[in-house]
Amino acid sequence: MRVFLAVKLYRLQLEVFRPKWWPEAAQGAVVLEKDSVIVADDAARAAGVQLGMRRGGVLTLAPGATIYERDLTKEESAQREVAMALMQFSPEVSRVDGTTLLVDVSASLRLFGGMLRLCRQVRIVLRDMGLSARVSAAPTGQGAWLLVQNGQRRFLAMRLLARELDRLPFGTVPDLQPFADWLTGLGCKTIADIRRLPRAGLQRRCGAEVLASLDQAFGGAPELFDWLEPPPVFAARIELPDRIEHAEGMLFAARRLIVQLCGWLVARQLSLAAATFFLEHERGREAVEPTALAIALGEPTWREDHLVKLLKERLGRLTLPASVIALRLEEIGRASCRERV
After folding, report:
1. What is the DSSP letter of 154?
2. pLDDT tens digits along 248-283
């Protein structure tokens, strides 16, 4: 039986600007799209900011709030970073939509000690990346995707999955949303109500895609996925939300790069022999050359905890020539899969 994890980054629009490990803005932070609030953090909501509110309303309730404009490029980049990190659990990772990734962990459950431990480790990786996420599991990819849109659930038996999917509002299925008024008029509320309708009539009115989507979710039709390919060479960079003056303060940001590297190593069946962190400083007229921090390992590894420990020791002995605005990580030495322990 196949098992899929669906990982939904439900605060991605905000956390590409302010990761969870970065201190919250004093009066909160919000993200606008078309001058309307689409995400607000706890401090902003406590001040009365609500979804859909205009910029003027935000500034009235929380005049000191930090306001960002939605950045789809940053979101897509963050999703690729998460996909890379998740490859340490399975090489089969797919981007489903703007906030959700799908991972086929069928061959990984025993290796990671079962579903509960695997989900726990996935959440730890996402926490290290500074991202909030919900994780659901199901024997179909479409089923896992539907579950994660409505909470954090795991159903590995097809019978239990079908029962849970039938209870979901039919609007959870994107292909049904354009026909919501018509379906509501027929008395439909849940996916079970939709499945009781005559298939031929539903296909004529809503199209074959609706039936295909439902059949895939319930295991009645094969699923095809566009699995992401890890690049042949690893290099990753992260811009900091603000300047960092002390070397120790960069460890949280560096972990985001390290978990990506570990995912890349596992996907490529490699071990790391050496890598270099570049601490980027001011640019322009007052430019300062990046500080290079070389990490050389006595034995090749692909484990996050070992790399984090080494980096922490190096950062503790480092004196910065200037504040840091970005970090970059490049692997410069590797061992083949035959040399992995």
Report:
1. B
2. 778 888 889 999 999 999 998 888 888 889 999 877
Contact 159, 143 (CB under 8 A): no
- Which residue intervals of 237-279 are DSSP H helices? 251-267
Residue 233: closest CA among 84, 83, 77, 16: 84
DSSP letter, residue 12: H
Output DSSP code: residue 131.
-
The amino acid sitting at 37 is V
Give the Å distances, CA to CA, from 251 to 22, 128, 204, 316, 322: 12, 10, 56, 10, 17
Which residue, among 333, 254, 252, has the nearest Cα to 291 in the 3D structure?
A: 254
312: number of CA atoms within 13 Å, CB side?
8
Beta strands in 252-335 (DSSP E): 271-280, 291-301, 324-335
Each residue's pLDDT tens digit, 115-157: 999 999 999 999 989 999 999 999 999 999 999 998 878 888 9
Backbone angles phi, psi at 261, to 5 degrees: -60, -45
Q: How many CB atoms sit inside 10 A of residue 146's CB?
A: 26
Q: Tokens 């980096």 map to which residue?
A: 311
